[in-house]
Structure formats: structure tokens, C-alpha cells
């Protein structure tokens, strides 16, 4: 390891906040709580690239580290006067050198050093967990004795696939650096049909005609919204509509998804069809080219999401890839998914497209192993997907089946709270079924429910 030091001397601080989820968002650094005036030291040798006032930090110092000094960038935030030690932009600092003093400066919850590590240059959202990075770092003032890294505050361990556990409240952090015009639709954080199980990929759709972010949030007379997590308008505006589950995938299958469960495992992107004529179909789709603004937004959005979740482009699919056989879907029309995956892959590798001078996705190392494939359902049950909010004959058949075990259940064709409670109880008593209240192929097989 290159010559590396703790940013503060042991015994002068306590770790106040670790790297990870905090207060409904993600804390992208390590907070060293200390008294005002406590010295701050450079963790690695490098060059000062930013110094002085910074929004949210009061004052900060950013040090870029060349490859021979360990590479990456470190950030030191919250101090009274970043120039107190005489540093200036462009100055060379050595590992362990005094560079500043802690001071809350009215910009934080109390005096502390906010310390960040970036794998390359500074870029919002690219931060690494500093605790493993500091493991084995020396104590400032003692160049011979290695010291263990400070123990961060407890935080949930990241899931095997990356940032994929729970609802994606991180969408603004992932997308803001990548798209020119990002809008947060009112109430998006609390909108959805329940919670994600885990996020395994991204699905692209077209709307089939003019459709606003509001229409995706509210839904249609036959299908209650939200209908996707994201909406991309014809002018390239990307709107975050929902953080919870959305009804966008429906019945279908793909090798790394449980059959018919795409809604609970995929971030959906509804792209407003460019729409010039009176209607669209699979026959005339090729006559309707996508607008350049939309292509840029779709490409950058997909690249940003996959990079954030540490996925490769194999986790990007179209609705037609998943639901083509089951529902006859062909969206996104006039767009080859192999072509789109190729474009997104170039974006994720840092390729700058000719004429594109707007925001860029953050380049993040990918390649973690994919989620294991689920077992294929028996053919007789492969098309079953019934959940709360649905009505009709399929729900009535489900209720009639459940009456074998729950004699007081009303058979009315309306999948409401009582039906969901019966389904959850049935699943709970029959492991390894997930007690989620959703009747998919696995639950239908256990019930013997054939529609």
C-alpha cells in the first residue's frame, strides 16, 4: 500500500457516522467528531485541486493523488478556514502533512471532519467506503507504527449485487450527475405498490402515445399508478415518479428473474413515444424515429442506474425481452435492445459520444456475480400473477381455492386486504414460499391453482 495516514490523530476523535444509509439517504463518507481546532492531516500525498468555500461543507480541501502515491482523491470537509495552514490550490502535500483544522463553521451538525475517498477524480456519487481504504494506515506523527482503521458506525452490509436492497431512494444521487434535466415528481419517495424484494435490473418501455410523468404516477382507469419508477419525456427530461413497486412489467420471464415477478425486481423506465401520427403499432413503429434528446437521456439514465448498482449491461432489458411471449409486447418499438445495450456499455466505459457535451454517468467498477437463476415454474402455473388491487375472474378463482383453508373468506373477485392476509398466511405455513401476499407461479403450484 502507498504511504497512507489516518486523517486525524488517534485519541482526538470519535467516529460519529459511518458510510452508508443515514436519515433516509446515503452518507458518502466517514465523520470524525472532534473539538474545534483539532488538526487534520493528508491521508496520501498529492495535489490540492480544490480549497476554500464549498456548499454543504462551509470550507473544504480536495487532494488528488497520482498513481505513484496511491491514486484516487480524498476530501476533507468542515473547517473554519481551509487556508489556515497556508495551503493554496495547486500545492503539493505529503502523506501525513498537517493541512487544516476542524471547525463546524455553521455548516454541520457539530464540529467534525467529513472524510471522503473517490477511486479516481472527485465526482458526486463515486465515493468509496473510507474505513477499508484506511485499514493499516499510520497514525500522523508516528511514521513507523501501523494503526488499524477507525471502526465506522454500524451500517447494513451491501447486498451481493450492489446497491440493490430495498426501495431505490438513491435515484436522485445516481441520476443527477448523468442527465441534463432531472425532475423529482412530488411525493415520489412515498409512492408505490409496496416495497421491492431486491432490484436485479432495469427495464425500458415506450408509452404507446403521449404520456406525462403525471399520467405515469396516477395510472389509467384500468391500472392504478405508479406505472414505472422513471419517465423520460420527448425533450429528454427525466422524472423520478416512484420509489416503490410499480405496475410496469406484468407477466413474463427472463433467465435471472422469477417468472411474472418483474415488478418486484426491476426499475421501470417509461419513455414517451415520439408520436407524430394518429396511432402506433408494431407495423409502423419503424417510421417513428426516437428524438436525439431522448436517446441521450435513455442511454445516460440506463448507464447511471447500472453503474450505481454495480451491474453490467446484461441487466438491461426491454419489455419485449421479458413479456413478448407472455403478453405479446414489442416495446420499446423501433429500438434494438442489443444496440441499446452496446450504447450503454460504451457510456459506462467513459466513451464520449460525438456532439455530446452534457452531464456524464459516473464510471463505477462493475462485474459482481449475477443473482442465481430461480427455478423454472411448472408450465401449468407459469402464467399466474395475482396481487392486491386486482379484480375479476382470476381473483375469484383464487378466493375459491383459498376457501379450502379459509372458510370465512368472501368470494367477491376483489383482491383486497382479507384476501392478501389469507395468501400471506398460506405462504407463511409453507416454506420456502415468501410470505409477500403475491400469488405467482410458486404459490400457485403449492395451491394447485390453475387459471
Protein described:
By secondary structure, this protein is an alpha+beta fold. The protein is 18% helix and 19% strand. It contains nine helices and 21 strands. It has a seven-stranded antiparallel β-sheet. It has a six-stranded mixed β-sheet with strand order 14-19-18-20-15-21. Strands 2-3 form a two-stranded antiparallel ribbon. Helix 4 crosses helix 6. The longest helix is centred in the middle third of the chain and has 17 residues. About 7% of the residues have low confidence.
The dominant shape is globular
Biggest sheet strand order reads 1-4-11-8-7-6-9
Number of strands: 21
Count of runs of 4 or more consecutive helical residues? 9
Mean pLDDT: 82
Unreliable stretches, pLDDT < 50, 5 or more residues? 143-162, 364-374
Beta strand %: 15-25%
Separation, N- and C-terminal Cα atoms: 62 Å
Helix content: 10-25%
What class would the helix/strand composition place it in?
Answer: alpha+beta
Radius of gyration: 26 Å
Order of helices and strands: EEEEEEEEEEEHEEHEEHEEEEEHEHHHHH
Main pleated-sheet profile: 7 strands, antiparallel
Amino acid at each position: 500500500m502507498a504511504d497512507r495516514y489516518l486523517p486525524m490523530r488517534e485519541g482526538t476523535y470519535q467516529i460519529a457516522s459511518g458510510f452508508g444509509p443515514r436519515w433516509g439517504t446515503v452518507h458518502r463518507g466517514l465523520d470524525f467528531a472532534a473539538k474545534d481546532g483539532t488538526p487534520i492531516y493528508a491521508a496520501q500525498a498529492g495535489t490540492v485541486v480544490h480549497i476554500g468555500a464549498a456548499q454543504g461543507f462551509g470550507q473544504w480541501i480536495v487532494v488528488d493523488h497520482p498513481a505513484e502515491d496511491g491514486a484516487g482523491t480524498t476530501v476533507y470537509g468542515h473547517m473554519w478556514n481551509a487556508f489556515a495552514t497556508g495551503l493554496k490550490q495547486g500545492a503539493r502535500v505529503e502523506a501525513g502533512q498537517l493541512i487544516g483544522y476542524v471547525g463546524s463553521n455553521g455548516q454541520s451538525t457539530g464540529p467534525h471532519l467529513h472524510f471522503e475517498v473517490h477511486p479516481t477524480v472527485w465526482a458526486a456519487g463515486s465515493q468509496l467506503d473510507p474505513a477499508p481504504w484506511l485499514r493499516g494506515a499510520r497514525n500522523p506523527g508516528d511514521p513507523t507504527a501501523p494503526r488499524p482503521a477507525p471502526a465506522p458506525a454500524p451500517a447494513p452490509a451491501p447486498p451481493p449485487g450492489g446497491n440493490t436492497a430495498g426501495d431505490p431512494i438513491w435515484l436522485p444521487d445516481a441520476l443527477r450527475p448523468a442527465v441534463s434535466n432531472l425532475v423529482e415528481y412530488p411525493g415520489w419517495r412515498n409512492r408505490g405498490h409496496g416495497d421491492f424484494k431486491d432490484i436485479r435490473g432495469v427495464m425500458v418501455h415506450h408509452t404507446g402515445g403521449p404520456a406525462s410523468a403525471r399520467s405515469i404516477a396516477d395510472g389509467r382507469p384500468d391500472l392504478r399508478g405508479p406505472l414505472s419508477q422513471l419517465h423520460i419525456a420527448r425533450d429528454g427530461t427525466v422524472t423520478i415518479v416512484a420509489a416503490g413497486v410499480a405496475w410496469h412489467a406484468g407477466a413474463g420471464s427472463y433467465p435471472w428473474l422469477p417468472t411474472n415477478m418483474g415488478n418486484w425486481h426491476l426499475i421501470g423506465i417509461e419513455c414517451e413515444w415520439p408520436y407524430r401520427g394518429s396511432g402506433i403499432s408494431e407495423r409502423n413503429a419503424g417510421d417513428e424515429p426516437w428524438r436525439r434528446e431522448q436517446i441521450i437521456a435513455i442511454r445516460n439514465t440506463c448507464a447511471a442506474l447500472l453503474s450505481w448498482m454495480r451491474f453490467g449491461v446484461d441487466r438491461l432489458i426491454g419489455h419485449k425481452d421479458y413479456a413478448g411471449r407472455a403478453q405479446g409486447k414489442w416495446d420499446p418499438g423501433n429500438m434494438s435492445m442489443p444496440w441499446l445495450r452496446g450504447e450503454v456499455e460504451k457510456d459506462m466505459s467513459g466513451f464520449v459520444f460525438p456532439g455530446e457535451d452534457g452531464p456524464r454517468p459516473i464510471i463505477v467498477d462493475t462485474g459482481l456475480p449475477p443473482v442465481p437463476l430461480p427455478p423454472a415454474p411448472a408450465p401449468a402455473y407459469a402464467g399466474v400473477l395475482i396481487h392486491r388491487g386486482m379484480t375479476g375472474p382470476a381473483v375469484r378463482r383464487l378466493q375459491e381455492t383459498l376457501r379450502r383453508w379459509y372458510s370465512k373468506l368472501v368470494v367477491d373477485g376483489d383482491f383486497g386486504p382479507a384476501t392478501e392476509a389469507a395468501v400471506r398466511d398460506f405462504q407463511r405455513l409453507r416454506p420456502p414460499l415468501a410470505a409477500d401476499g403475491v400469488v405467482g407461479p410458486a404459490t400457485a403450484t403449492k395451491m394447485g391453482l390453475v387459471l
